Amino acid sequence: MQWLDAIIQGVLLGGMYAQYALGMALMFGVMRIVNIAHGDVMILLSLIAVSLAGVLPVGNIGLIVVIVPIAVAIGWALQTFILNRVVGADPLPSLIATFGLSIALQNLMLEVWSADTRSLPNSGIASESFQIGPIYVGLLPVIVLICAFVLTGGLDAVMRYTRFGRGLRAAAADTEAAAMTGVDPKRIYATATAIAVGILGLAAVFAALRATVSPSDGSAQLIYAFEAVIIGGMGSIWGAFLGSMVLGVAQAIGLRVDPGLGILFGHLVFLLVLATRPEGIMARKK
Amino acid sequence: MTGTPILSTHALNGGYGDFQALFGIDMELHEGEVISLIGANGAGKSTFLKSVFGLLPVAPEMVRYDGEAVGGTPAHRMVRRGIAMVPEGRRLFVGMTVEENMRVAIDNARLPEDEGQWTRERLFELFPILREKRRQPIEDLSGGQQQMVAISRALLCQPRVLLCDEISLGLAPKVIREIYAILPEITAAGTSIVLVEQDVSLAREASNRLYCMLEGRITLTGASNDISRDDIAAAYFGASDAVA
């Protein structure tokens, strides 16, 4: 029973990781842009949410309505003013640019918010739970998981069936050929990054409700998102969701073995997948 | 040919960064016409197409399309105006199906599919094999089939001018004939064609007029039927030091 509980808690944790990973699946998996500042942008959005809580009369969950548009704007600006200048066949310039951005953001956040850990005050939902048989399940993690599931399905459908999705996949496959076919790669990339960071806005509010955040937490979220995308398979949106589940369950099981082993177990499973199936779980067969 | 050309270049200079590859190219293409551009490797044929299509920087007045100075307009805007390109090496969107490759063009075409000359249905009739393979990923197709998709993708942009860069490269002679056989159908639909081709006899047969390039300059031009093989040899390789 203890292990069943670990798996359920792991899946719920995976829901949180899936929200970190979806934007990464779009940027890294599809567009092949390595955004080192992914986690830091999320922490920034969390801290903005914490600062706005109490100021705005929208409640804590209601902050999503404010934070997501801010996130979309940040994503659009990030792509338009920074990444579109460095994106190309060579992944190194975008990696260096976002690495610099990551350091700058961390220091900016330290300056503004100091190194204290903060979180959104519990508004009932964060602490409510219900019981299934002998297992207690938190309401907030279930909401997070459902949101992640719906977002994954939605994003996957957008990539498959919409004009935007086709244009983005075309631009990711061959930017110049996409331009020759009428796609404006810069505009479509700006939209894609706006969506990716927009999803991060949702994750940021949930992360601040669920636990604490501080300016230096971004790199851990970055690693989890990377691992989830790679475990799932580059370019696959559902793969990133599944990768998040694998990571969440591995960490939860590790935690049951020994409270110090949770994160390590996640990394070990990641290494195991890399060693045995480096193309990822959901990658298309060649 | 009378009237204003649909596409023309005027003393077009172009190249990559500091390296100049094109020197004062004057060329014109009239409505319904096929012109071919021949020349050895490195003569500047592909660079010329890229310069016209907005993939390399040129001054606005160097390229005129439909009476307007359009030089340097980004390629995706050129597509909306009615120029499309079949790039060298096909450059299809890997990881997407045949039909998805076509739909990217339809999404961004000059005209909607139901108003334009070209529909998926019509192209599936021209290239029946593509109907069979429409749901297969592009990388599963043979080179000839991929070239058919590349041509279909360009035509679904509903172009008034089609730029074809080495569409016979690396294909079997039978497939080349199959692909060249549809060129008359394209011009009948009102599209003018610029054909870059290494195979000189193929280029002569398929075009009304011919331009020969050598080291970034036009060395010969005229009606394809009137030009003799010797003239072409001289223009292609440069004066008298032609092949023995």
Outline:
The complex is a heterodimer of chains A (286) and B (244). Chain A has 286 residues and is an all-alpha fold.
Describe the structure in your own words:
The complex is a heterodimer of chains A (286) and B (244). Chain A is built from eleven helices and two strands, in the order ααααββααααααα. Chain A is an all-alpha fold. Chain A has one domain: ABC transporter involved in vitamin B12 uptake, BtuC (Orthogonal Bundle), CATH 1.10.3470. A two-stranded antiparallel sheet of chain A has the order 1-2. In chain A, helix 10 (237-257) packs across helix 11 (262-276). The radius of gyration of chain A is 19 Å and the shape is globular. Chain B is an alpha/beta fold. Chain B has a domain at 7-85 and 159-237: 3-Layer(aba) Sandwich (Rossmann fold). Chain B is 33% helix and 24% strand. In chain B, the strands form two sheets. In chain B, strands 6-7-8-3-9-10 form a six-stranded mixed sheet, with helices on both faces. A four-stranded antiparallel sheet of chain B has the order 2-1-4-5, with helices on one face. Chain A binds chain B through residues 163, 166-167, 169-170, 173-174, 176-185, 235, 284, and chain B through 53, 55, 74-76, 79-80, 84-85, 87, 91-96, 100-101, 103-105, 107-109, 137, 153-154, 157.
Portion of residues in helices of chain A?
A: over 70%
CATH superfamily of the domain at 7-85 and 159-237 in chain B: P-loop containing nucleotide triphosphate hydrolases
The CATH topology of chain A is: ABC transporter involved in vitamin B12 uptake, BtuC
The spatial strand order of the largest sheet of chain A comes to: 1-2
The proportion of residues in beta strands of chain A is under 5%
The CA-CA distance between the termini of chain A, in Å, is 40 Å
Termini distance of chain B? 37 Å
Number of strands of chain B: 10
Largest sheet of chain B: 6 strands, mixed
